[in-house]
Amino acid sequence: MSDVDEEARLSAVHSYGVLGAARPPQLDDLARLAASVCGTPMSAVCLVDRDRQWFAGKTGIAEDETPRDISFCAQTIPARAQLVVPDARADERFRAYRNVIGDPHVRFYAGSPLIDDDGYALGALCVIDDRPGDLAPGQREALGTLSRQAAGHLALLRSRLLLAELGDELARATQREEDLVATISHELRTPVTAIQGYLELLAEDELPDGCHRLVEPIQRNGRRLVGMVEHLLTGARPAGAPLPLHRTPVELHVLLAAAVRSCAQLAEPRGVEVVVEPATQASVVSVDAARLTQAVQQLVRNAILFSPPGAAVTVRAVYSPAPAIEVCDAGVGIPADELPYVFQRFFRGRHARREAVPGVGLGLHIAQEAAAAHGGRLTLSSAGAGTTARLTLP
After folding, report:
1. How far is it, in rounded angstroms, from Cα 85 to Cα 110?
2. In principle, which of 301, 307, 352, 363 could form an S-S bond with 348, CB 3.0–4.6 Å?
3. Distance (Å, rounded) from C-alpha 384 to C-alpha 394?
4. Which residues of the chain register pLDDT less than 70?
5. What is the 3-state secondary structure (H, E, C) of 6-49?
6. How far is CA 168 from CA 162, 165, 308, 325, in A?
7. 328, β-bridge pairs
8. Phi-psi region of 351 (alpha: psi -120 to 50; beta: other; left: phi over 0)
9. In this structure, how many other beta carbons lie within 10 angstroms of the beta carbon of residue 176?
10. What is the pLDDT of residues 204-230, one digit of tens each?
């Protein structure tokens, strides 16, 4: 085996995270089963490191590791085949090994290599006796089967290790995201709020001719910036943080009308008509009117932004079997492969990115959070063109 191949093999061995660690019970069980099947007092699941062999599973063996230079299992790696030594004292390869001359006085050895899914020989599952012996054909086959089981358990252990590391990295990434959003929001809100205050003072003062028409667009864009900061703060709340609610009785169609009015300035320049279907009955629900209105605003805003000019967006209240709000559009729709991700923070689909649709990918997340805080749920359905958002209340 070349030095490069050996380094790759050692890297694979270390990737399982069992060297020097507590022995997994499953590998101890496999060692005991191998000893029972083969009728030997000792057995081990052995991983061969650079200068040692580590017993990741064992029975009848006192040590946790032994030097590689007296490792029988190391001999299975170049051949990648089962090795059977009926009597080590009569075998020139092993007769001078310290573990043959002294404790544990190895005489009989049989080992099947541990080959992982990437083709690396990690070590061997071996059985050992202090008396000469041999294996019957059925025992040799069973030893090979058990070695494959041991390799499978090692693969499972590595998968769990990788998942744990991925979970830790995701947690760190989420915390970095929240810290960044909080910092940006604070750094934006403080100066923008100050600018808004000074503009209000200017608007109250006597200004030279023509100056008032300059103040108004500055105020309008300042309010837009403040709204964006609030949007970021709302959508980037830490995961699991409770959303406080101040419930009051409110009629659904009144809430819908307020949400639609707030989106009028977005719909008109795009030539999109927002239609609120007449209420068929009065339905009073106990909700946080501000939170729920904000959620409906997000749904209506999305419907407008993804609708072509001349299209209509329909908003309705549904009362059976449970109170619900539906927002329907005839826009581009949501591809099936994107539907599972639309509620994730900062997710923007291909169409939104390609067409530079305004937004940062928080609207649906904010609406879903509001629905969940009320004990309800938000669902989206889209088949080709058009999307229907349904916010159901308990």
Report:
1. 6
2. 352
3. 30
4. 1-2, 171, 173-175, 177-189, 198-199, 201-217, 219-244, 282, 360
5. HHHHHHHHHCCCCCCCCCCHHHHHHHHHHHHHHCCCEEEEEEEC
6. 10, 5, 43, 38
7. 314, 388
8. alpha
9. 10
10. 666 666 666 666 667 666 666 666 666
